[in-house]
Amino acid sequence: MNAASFQIRPTALPGCVELLPRRQQDERGGFVKVFHRDTFAQLGLETEYPEVYYSHSRQGVIRGLHFQLPPAHQAKLVFCTQGRVQDAVVDLRVGSPAYRQYVTLELSAVAANLIYIPPGLAHGFCVLSDWATLVYQVGSQYAPDLDAGVLWNSVGIPWATSQPIISDRDMSHPPLAEFASTFRYSAEGLITEV
């Protein structure tokens, strides 16, 4: 497998890309390869994912906007195995040409698309279908003391629901305007702590 095995769609956030893998479909159903270490290395993406999670959420749920602080910052590879979501990513890297900007895109099991999120970006999503299952491969292990977020409605994202279902934890994150970022951007994609 080589880089041609994935169609790459850059987003407005440097280093954050949508990946469309080749899909095999026949009368039995479908088959999709979502990760290949050598291909990801060739593309300059994270190749080590020590933890993998999934969430199962009902329509109208918003989760986010989450990230881990340095030195436990992490790249994420996110995709939907059931249903569809409005995915959102916010650039928190001071010095980035897209600092404090966001992008949204739809992830769905039918499209089989993925989003690669480099360290220093916050991630969240809103469930569009009755139910959705989202898988997250993360580039560092969970560090409770460095687990963080910014308030879901403080960025200007036009969320796809007017009646969101949100956890108390996600309601308690600081607004983006009050978040003092410890992420720094460089053209090489390096993230350093202040």
Offer a quick outline of the entry.
With 194 residues, this protein is mainly beta. Helices cover 6% and strands 40% of the residues.
Write the layout of secondary structure elements.
Blueprint: E1 6-10, E2 17-21, E3 23-26, E4 29-32, H1 37-43, E5 51-58, E6 62-68, E7 76-82, E8 84-91, E9 102-108, E10 114-117, E11 121-127, E12 131-138, E13 147-149, H2 168-171
Mean pLDDT across the residues is: 93
Largest sheet: 6 strands, antiparallel
Reported by name, the CATH topology is Jelly Rolls
Shape: globular
Could you characterize what this model shows?
- The chain has one domain (3-178): Jelly Rolls, CATH 2.60.120.
- The chain contains 2 helices and 13 strands; from the N terminus they run E-E-E-E-H-E-E-E-E-E-E-E-E-E-H.
- With 194 residues, it is mainly beta.
- The chain starts with 5 loop residues before the first strand and ends in a 23-residue tail after the last helix.
- Strands 1-2-10-7-12-5 form a 6-stranded antiparallel β-sheet, with no helix packed on it. A 5-stranded antiparallel β-sheet has the order 9-8-11-6-13, with no helix packed on it. It has a two-stranded antiparallel sheet with strand order 3-4.
